[in-house]
Amino acid sequence: MDKTYDYVIVGAGSAGCTLANRLSEDKNARILVLEAGGWDRDPWIAIPLGWGKILQNRLYDWMYFAEPAPSLDNRRVECARGKVVDLVGAEGIGFQLSARIRLNL
Known about the structure:
This protein is of the alpha/beta class. The chain has one domain (7-93). It has 3 helices and 6 strands; from the N terminus they run βαββααβββ. Strands 1-2 form a two-stranded parallel sheet. A two-stranded parallel ribbon has the order 3-6.
């Protein structure tokens, strides 16, 4: 059987799933969506403060860190990127944070 596709989408996050949905409006289009992560069925993903628990086992993100930043005493800041099929990608790992920014003008 010939496995050919008209479109290959890498990532089943919010953008990938939205794109696949739009492309699937053409019933003749053959679409392949690739995702390295699993489904978002862990209850900790849906709990806003479950982020701390999720970070303990690191199953749902790629463990990316930024380069050392001189303005942060050369620390490497964590850059969480989701690795789950959940229709919302990185947003699906469910943490809610608020940030207060102080500008020194």
